[in-house]
Amino acid sequence: MAAVATEARVFLEVRRRLQSALLILGDSKEGGLPMAVSVTPSSLRMQSPGGCTELRLPAGVRLAPSTCRGLQHVPGDGLHLRLHARAESRPELISVFNQSSQDQECCTFYCQSCGEVIIRDRMLLRVLPLPGDNWGALVDEWCCHPDPFANKPLHPRENDCFTGDCFYLVNLKSDLWQPRPEGAPVETHHLSSENHLKLKPKANTKVICKRCKVMLGETVSSETTKFYMTEIIILPSERNFPIIPRSQFVQSVLAQCVVELSSARSTFRFTIQGHDDKVYILLWLLNSDSLVIESLGQYTNIKKFPVLEDVLKPDSNSACNAVKVLYQPCIKSRNAELSSLWENDLSVHSLTLPSTTCLELLLILSKSNATLPPSLRCMNSFQVAFLKM
Question: What is its EC number (predicted)?
Answer without folding.
Answer: 2.3.2.26
